[in-house]
Amino acid sequence: MHNSYWYYALLILSISLFSFVLIKKRNTQSLFLLLTKIGGAFLIETAIYNFLASYDYNPNFIKSNEFYDNNLGAFVSNAFALPIVATLIAVFHLNWIWMILFSGLFVGIEWLFLKLHIYSHNWWRLAYTGIGLPFYFATAKVYYKWILRPSNGFKHYWILYLITGSISASAHILPIIFFSNRIYSPGWFENSGRDSIALGAIFYVCDSLYYCLMTKLNLKRNWIKYIFTGFLMYGVNLVLIGAGILRSLVWWDIPYYVILSILLLLLTGNIDKRLSQLPNLR
């Protein structure tokens, strides 16, 4: 069977499962929890996958760039399969037995993908997955309680940061993978694809923090921070180009990221308000 079929099957099953969650719960909290868990998975993968090369995916979605194809395989796992199951566990208040069962299921899927040679380990081991996933699922239950009990402290801004990060990372990196609109060359890795994705990951980690901090800034003329954000993004891109770190390959590349920065700041502000106003539901 073609490599991609297995990944498509995992993708379809994951989307179907989340559709079930939305139909049953019909609330914004479930979506916010999913985005929170995606943001957490992206942070973990930035460390162990992008920089420490823990494992490799081979879905054969993209044939022109091996690492971009590799990254899409990771995206299926970290933006769909794992966060959606974590969301299911939390919103339906499933106990630790279910967490262990789902962890075993994912270990089994990982083992199957290894045997099919559509996924491979470098230094990673199945045991690490089996040990790590129960903790990943358990944090979903903690985060769901935080989301259901609005707060203006650390809990609120940590959830806001993870949600913003999940959206920012996807909007920043997916165009690079699908449209080759830009190339980052910090010189960290020999593989240019890994180099681009690694710096793209650092970029989103930093700009997500910026958007969250800016939501705390209340100006008499609030539109000023949106204008400033657009010019700041434009300036950062010019600095990266001047330093030889960024190559912009299409005409819409820089305008896209400038407009994206303004939209993400606006979206972060709206999510911030929604998180503060959510009813205390169980």
Distinctive features:
single chain, mainly alpha, two-stranded antiparallel ribbon, 282 residues
Structural class computed from helices and strand pairing: mainly alpha
- Helix and strand element order: HHEHHEHHEHHEH
Secondary structure tally, helices:
9
Cα-atom radius of gyration: 19 Å
User: Which range does the strand content fall in?
Assistant: under 5%
Shape: globular
Cα separation of the termini:
43 Å
Percent helix: over 70%
> Taking all residues together, what is the mean pLDDT?
93
Strand order across the largest sheet: 1-2
Q: How many β-strands, per DSSP?
A: 4
Q: Are there runs of 5+ residues with pLDDT below 50, and where?
A: none
Largest sheet: 2 strands, antiparallel
Describe the protein in words.
- The protein contains nine helices and four strands.
- The protein is mainly α.
- Strands 1-2 form a two-stranded antiparallel sheet. A two-stranded antiparallel sheet has the order 3-4.
- α6 (154-179) runs antiparallel to α9.
- The radius of gyration is 19 Å and the shape is globular.
- The N and C termini lie far apart (43 Å).
Concise synopsis of the structure shown:
The chain has helices at residues 3-25, 28-51, 66-91, 96-115, 126-148, 154-179, 192-215, 223-242, 253-277, and strands at residues 55-57, 119-121, 182-184, 246-248. It has 282 residues and is mainly alpha-helical.
Secondary structure elements and pairings:
Blueprint: H1 3-25, H2 28-51, E1 55-57, H3 66-91, H4 96-115, E2 119-121, H5 126-148, H6 154-179, E3 182-184, H7 192-215, H8 223-242, E4 246-248, H9 253-277
Antiparallel strand pairs: 1-2, 3-4
